[in-house]
């Protein structure tokens, strides 16, 4: 479905300040902005034409185009009620003479197709404008940067323009069908008239997907960088409905869901751990990322396997024009990337990044911290190859390695490897397909070096997936998508071995788990009228738990315990142990009362066959992933949402209010004192529960001007209930808060650019403290200290709040300079808030009576400085 995007041919007016004729550039800029605010239309003028226009002030701002062309040989025309193109009369007169003298009106017409590229971002430009003023004709590029239009035979001057880019003029000789390829360069205008964007200015109101947020990398760069890095995941935490349990926690929570209920994709490959250094960095390098889209309301039918959200990360393609180097050097991490053409059909993009904060840890006076060390290294590679006009291939790869040592006796390592091979094919004018073969591998290990208890614990995940999607773009059923998916899983559940022969640790190996998940899906947009539109999706998924594996049978009628095993069933390789499946319908509805006000509603059902097992309050890199099996059923959820969306001031200000309710079943919880690692009878420590979540999300966002940003507020609750068939219920069978239940969450984001080369930004976040379970009594029974805990999650740690500040300075460079650079300075946790990450109890050294301790992961301000550069 084609999107309309905001277009502007920016003006290079800085060179006109000393001109003696024509409109004053500052006044003209102000009038252009006033005209846009009054009419919602952008005016397109070539720099070379500005001095020739009328210099009189406009009496009525709505008549600005007519006033600018009054008494001078210039005319104008409207395009789609969004743009006004001002052009010299001789272009039109030349065409009219040719039409009269040469009979052009009776000549043939030819199809002009083309692509408009972005020199700066090395990608195509969705929404760019191609126009021929002689004919008062224009066409807008689609989301792939492509346009097509029928043009009468003849010779014309074509304009190519896009927001933030210099408008290009080219002579177009139309005597046959043409296929154009045009690159637009960055504008050098000193006037900050508009905010760069590549989506429709009313997309939040008119799109049919509630709860979907797309953030291009250029928008993410406006946020304060954490530890010198622009971070996709941390930026998502500033959106309504998205939260985390604290600093240093991997993953995020969306609308009451656990961290395992988010499907995170990088070019189609699933990511099982999105974090470096326990959550302080994400695996997404800012130089490799093109954009990120978060679906937290209605999830399109092409995505499945998770209950709460989808975070879809797309990497950048290499430049088709020239080679360039880019990167950054900072106190804690550095980056280097290169991209460019290998030949006229193949482009490459490669990045590498390293972090080295150990030297900072060495300077901290706390002995346990100063003896710690951490680092990571990661890299991206992408190759795009155009086979022919109808077929293309894209390979995307990622690899990373993390190391963390706490104190002097325990080290953690984990690695992520991702790969995807995508084949795009067009079978006709309106029909195409996309095949994506992906691999995702995750490894972790814990090494204990405290002799004689030295050990190594290993685990792994291997996922191979295949997806093919077909899409129809004809006039009828435009946007129809359907396809299939297959995923195979190999889960290493734990392997404990001695690190030396003298170790007293007993080696143990837990059986691996295997499974296959398949799905068929259909997504169909529907339209009753311009005001009433929506989408219908249907997905059927099926899961098979496979051997080889030994499955225990337990004595019926009593709680499962290792002592109640009565039999063992041995399944061979490939034999089906258990199967599950079900329909997952998705439905959205949007009614637009006006062009800037709409209401949206959605309902969708999801099934998840994977489970993240952790009895901590936050996910860690060494947590355990498990497949559904004989005893652990798949998680299921229905989510319902309704939202109001209203834009103000000619779409410059976006507001939204959404409410949701989520009903969840077959949720995994743990018995008190559960042992999750190296447990051959893991099902005896797991129980199935139910839960529900509800909330309201408010967002107000200013998109343009020197001061931009947003305020988001979320009120939400997430409650769970566990009443097993046999054994004691949790919390006496009553609902209790989930570990990530945080009712209030407020985020304020601001970016201020007083002049072109300097910007300041700030973020503030406040949220309710997470739930914890505290002791209700301590008893001395025969010299043994016994702790009696209250019911689960009935207390909370202190509330969380933090302020971050940042500034960016863009160094001066000449218009045609091949070297660009800027400096970012950021201050994380400006007022040094000691936000509690955990609240735990340990026996005293003398009395043995447990004492209360609060752990603040970051209890001080952290400054960072990064120098960023691009060399072409």
Structural write-up:
- Helix content is 7%, strand content 53%.
- By secondary structure, the chain is mainly β.
- The longest helix is centred in the first third of the chain and has 15 residues, at 25-39.
- The protein starts with 24 loop residues before the first helix and ends with a strand.
- Mean pLDDT is 83; it is low at 1-21, 102-106 and 188-198.
Taking all Cα atoms into account, the compactness measure Rg is 30 Å
Stretches where pLDDT is under 50 for at least 5 consecutive residues are 1-21, 102-106, 188-198
Number of alpha- plus pi-helical segments: 9
- Taken together, the total number of domains comes to 3
| Integer average pLDDT | 83
Shape: globular
CATH superfamily of the largest domain: TonB-dependent receptor, beta-barrel domain
Quaternary organisation of the protein chains: single chain
Helix content: under 10%
Q: Report the major sheet.
A: 22 strands, antiparallel, barrel
How far from one another are the termini?
35 Å
DSSP, total strands: 54
What's the CATH architecture of the largest domain?
Beta Barrel
- Give the structural class: mainly beta
| Strand residue percentage | over 45%
CATH fold-type name of the largest domain: Maltoporin, Chain A
CATH class of the largest domain: Mainly Beta
